[in-house]
Amino acid sequence: MSFLRRTVPLAIAFTVGVLMAFQYFVPHPHSKAFLELMTRWDRIIAGFAVFIGIYSLFHLHWTRIRRKAAGWGYSIFVFLGAGITIAFGLYNGGEAFWHDKKEDTMFDWLFLYVQVPAGATIFSILAFFMASAAYRTFRARTVESTVLLIAAIIVMLGRVPVGALISPYIPVVADWIMGVPNLAAKRGILLGVSLGAIATSIKIIFGVERQYLGGGD
Amino acid sequence: MITVVAGLMLLPLIPLQAGELIPPKSFKAYDTPNDGGESISLVWRASPSDSPEVDYVLHMANSPEGPWQEVMRVRSNTYYKNSALERFGFRKRNKDTHLLQIDPRRHFSSDKNRKALYYFKLAIARGEEFIPVEKVVSGRARGNWFNTAKLNNFIIMIAFSGVVLFFIIHARRNPKLFLRKISGLDAVDEALGRATEMGRPVLFVHGLTGMGSISTMASVNILSRIANRIAEYDAELKVVNNDPIVLSVSQEVVKEAYLEAGRPDAYNQDNVVMVASEQFPYVAAVGGIMTRERPAANFFMGYFYAESLILAETGASTGAIQIAGTDSYTQLPFFITTCDYTLMGEELYAASAYLSREPMLLGSLRAQDLGKAAIIVILFFGTALSSFGIGFISQVFRAF
Amino acid sequence: MGRFLNIDRRIIFAAVALAVIGSLLVDFSLPVPATAPVQQIFDKIESLPPGAHFLLSFDYDPSSKEELQPMALALLHHCFQRGVKVIGMTHNPGGTGLAEQALNSIASIYQRKYKEDYVFLGYKPGGASLVINMGEDIHTAFLKDFYGNDTTTLPALQGVESLRDIDYLVDLAAGVTIETWIAFGREKYQFEMGAGCTAVIGPEMYPFLDSRQINGLMAGLKGAAEYEVLVERKAQAFEGMRPQSVTHCLVILLVLFGNVAFFVSGSFRTQRRPRR
């Protein structure tokens, strides 16, 4: 069992990891064919994994309804929403799903008038939360936080036309803040992140880090 | 003698008379280096007649006798070799040499033999005037087994991998390794203890990227460590995902962690769930879980986007102790302002090693430090040299 | 004054809502000059000859529609005006409806025909793998377009075997796809690309602009508004500049007010620094 659960996955991770790392340096058609094969596998697995996701989602909400867990009524909407969308998707404006997708069907209507505004609504909550978080946390407690506060005000003004109305220099200074100190800090973080990512990849390829397989050793 | 030399030097400066077309020299064909056998490169030395009014015309055939077909006609002051840095490097003389890359299969699509030999004729033309180069050249396209333009990357990869592996082996022999304090990770026990005392669950929120992302790998590793401790504390762990593959891996990891802690009975598959596959439905679902179940501790680990602030603000409003870890640079400010502790950038990757204190895992951290030191030195010298107009260092590190 | 330090969040939410609604109701216009990164995208499309191939990747879903759809519409106006052939696709399953709507609505304004002047390849999963597949052979990556037509038969795709044959690509992204297009597309298959993204990930894209891995960038609603001004099609994004400006000013005022309260109440002597 340990052989199948540990040794085989580690061997696959090592072989594919090393081959993919070297593939980057080999332009030969065989190398390209290998890359295409791997990416195709990746897509096939991703396609099948969707079913696992759907099963998990439905199972969770079905259990909630069955057990009458707190707020179980909302779970009904999961089935309702999914059912209606799938049904209209399969109906395809009366032409059934094995035909090409028809335009302006009920499925499109659901997308445009339910999914689009619902997604936009959740996204717009961000503006409210940002205002509240900024109010609570942007305090000139120390010299550093004062610098941060001033920079934030300049960038906020520089990112909207009103900044240019106040002074033509505000967008220029805002761009400088974004392009110089901000970028320098970002690059510093990026370099650290990249080295960390490479080191983690090496640990995974060589089987040193194996937590993702579940358990310790 | 001096007169002759001076005369030769002045030669290119003398304007050419109309009609005087000088055919180019050194016409050659060869397999394009560093490619997968898609093209044949044709090169020739620039002719003194090169000007916007003059064209080069290339003919191609699959036998020396023909039939010949015109495959390209380009203005004579374009298509220089220095435009293909990735294949021919930074040599100065590249700007005096013309280069055309021809994909034979485009013109002879019926040819089944990928490595067939093709023949080329070049001519210089201006309007009706047409002077062919006498020489017919031939070449075949072959796939190459190593892209020499990526040699710099290859060397860096081998060197850095070697250093990481060396320090991993070294750490096994000398396990006492200094590790700076990461307060966010020291607070994990505090957060789990609080959840146990309050009898409320711990919520682990994955980022938005899939299993192919290193951030997700790192967060799964952290999940494993946290799940193990939660099983020991006998608290309840809830894990939310938005990717089905991450879901499967998380379920397996949590199950194994409970098994390892000797509490397989405490594992409940319904606590590791996929709540939505898209960004904002995911936010709505996780926000709902936070407000309904009021977890005592929230962990946000992985790569986040605009949802970070909504998640962390909702969590903060429920009074939960919050620990975030992300390598998403733009979301760091949001987590820092709304969470109690934030693991920044590479701290996310180091977390698994830090929590386990396994020497083998800690070894790679020293290699990362060494890598960073090397980058700082190179940046310093590179900036200094570039300031004095010496730019070779940027060529050495250029990625193709 | 100290009580103002912890005012109910709902008061702030109400102030933001009022600011947004008020600025939508009151009509006033603000100048929106184009910044260099947006101008560069415009100039690149301006330089494309009629018949050139432009790939637009709609990598966003309804949640980011407000910021990114105006960019798509403005870009499509520009391309169809110039007779550039447009190839649409998406990495995001939620993006198909938006892409289809954008392409069809703008194409009809300029009497551009599907299959001949533009195509929509639809959605395919895979991310980086899909980009690599397209770099090798666009027709095997997308055997059929969104409407089930064989991609090898589409006139708009004639002369396009792989990503190498694309004259310009713009990725409109709400996520990680710009990096994916750069790392697995542009770097491997050598084509020129620009990008548009939500304001929140805008700063993350600056290094790519600086290293010229993308030739231009539109960030957030302001980027979209600038492009609308450039193509002389002032629409949703341009209108959005009003509430955005007012909200930014409100947040600045709130922050300043919070700091005044912080100092006047003397809290700065007692409050410790927050934990990182």
Describe this structure in words.
The complex is a heterotrimer of chains A (217), B (400) and C (276). Chain A is mainly alpha-helical. Chain A has 3 domains: 67 residues; 68 residues, no CATH class; 66 residues. In chain A, helix 2 crosses helix 3 and helix 7 runs parallel beside helix 8. The longest helix of chain A is centred in the N-terminal third of the chain and has 39 residues. The mean pLDDT of chain A is 87. Chain B is of the alpha/beta class and 400 residues long. Chain B has 3 domains: 117 residues, Immunoglobulin-like (Sandwich); 44 residues; 178 residues, 3-Layer(aba) Sandwich (Rossmann fold), CATH 3.40.50.10160. In chain B, the strands form 3 sheets. A 6-stranded parallel β-sheet of chain B has the order 11-10-9-12-13-14, with helices on both faces. In chain B, strands 3, 4, 6, 7 and 8 form a 5-stranded antiparallel β-sheet that branches. In chain B, 41% of the residues are buried. The N terminus of chain B is likely disordered. Chain C is elongated. Chain C has a 6-stranded parallel β-sheet, sandwiched between helices. The C terminus of chain C is likely disordered. In chain C, helix 1 runs antiparallel to helix 10, helix 3 runs parallel beside helix 4 and helix 5 packs parallel to helix 7. Classes of the chains: A mainly alpha (217), B alpha/beta (400), C alpha/beta (276). Chains A and B meet through helix 2, helix 4 and helix 8 of A and helix 4, helix 6, helix 7, helix 8 and helix 9 of B.
Summarize the structure in short.
By secondary structure, chain B is of the alpha/beta class.
Key phrases:
heterotrimer; A: 217 residues; mainly alpha; 3 domains; B: 400 residues; alpha/beta; Immunoglobulin-like; Rossmann fold; 6-stranded parallel sheet; 5-stranded antiparallel sheet; 13 helices; 14 strands; elongated; disordered N terminus
What secondary-structure arrangement, pairings included, does this model have?
The complex is a heterotrimer of chains A (217), B (400) and C (276).
Chain A: H1 2-23, H2 29-67, H3 72-91, H4 106-137, H5 143-158, H6 161-166, H7 169-179, H8 181-205
Helix pairs in contact in A: 2-3, 5-7, 7-8
Chain B: H1 2-10, E1 25-31, E2 40-45, E3 55-61, E4 69-75, H2 85-88, E5 97-102, H3 104-107, E6 118-126, E7 129-132, E8 137-139, H4 151-173, H5 183-198, E9 202-206, H6 214-233, E10 237-241, H7 244-260, E11 272-274, H8 279-293, E12 297-301, H9 307-317, E13 321-326, H10 332-338, E14 341-344, H11 347-356, H12 359-387, H13 392-396
Helix pairs in contact in B: 4-12, 5-6, 6-7, 6-11, 8-9, 11-12
Chain C: H1 9-25, H2 36-47, E1 53-59, H3 65-82, E2 85-90, H4 96-109, E3 118-123, H5 128-136, H6 138-141, E4 168-173, H7 177-189, E5 193-197, H8 202-210, E6 217-219, H9 220-230, H10 236-264, H11 267-270
Parallel strand pairs in C: 1-2, 1-4, 2-3, 4-5, 5-6
Helix pairs in contact in C: 1-10, 3-4, 3-9, 5-7, 9-10
